[in-house]
Automatic annotation (TrEMBL):
<dbReference type="Pfam" id="PF04304">
    <property type="entry name" value="DUF454"/>
</dbReference>
<dbReference type="InterPro" id="IPR007401">
    <property type="entry name" value="DUF454"/>
</dbReference>
<feature type="transmembrane region" description="Helical">
    <location>
        <begin position="102"/>
        <end position="122"/>
    </location>
</feature>
<dbReference type="GO" id="GO:0005886">
    <property type="term" value="C:plasma membrane"/>
</dbReference>
<keyword id="KW-0472">Membrane</keyword>
<feature type="transmembrane region" description="Helical">
    <location>
        <begin position="12"/>
        <end position="41"/>
    </location>
</feature>
<keyword id="KW-0812">Transmembrane</keyword>
<keyword id="KW-1133">Transmembrane helix</keyword>
<feature type="transmembrane region" description="Helical">
    <location>
        <begin position="77"/>
        <end position="96"/>
    </location>
</feature>
<protein>
    <submittedName>
        <fullName>YbaN family protein</fullName>
    </submittedName>
</protein>
Amino acid sequence: MSLRKLCYLMLGFLGLGLGALGAVLPLLPAFPFLLVAAYGFGKSSDRLDRWFKGTRLYRENLADLAAGRGMTRRAKIRIMVTVTLLMAAAFAAMHAVAVGRIVLAFVWVGHVLYFLFGVKTLPEVSAPARESAPSGDPS
């Protein structure tokens, strides 16, 4: 295995680990780390790429967006709120760095605009209708 593929492999596992943590920790976003994992695995190995795309973590968080379909409103809101909270903390920590705050503000506005207008909103997946309910239609 070449050094380049090994670096991509390490990047994939790092993204996967942080993405898995982000799926269970409310303040750590899973989405960007899963994108990094998809990129790293895609560049390192076809086998790992297929494996990663078959995981529940990928299917539930990234598959629709990667296929160009979009994201549910709930997923978009979750990502925007998480990133906003993290960027607000960074903004507060940069009280003495005006340029950093300006850059962070532009990145935040770009992030919100991208998710509002650049990512298609998919309808929420609903539970299947219950078949046991009587139809009640006499005709």
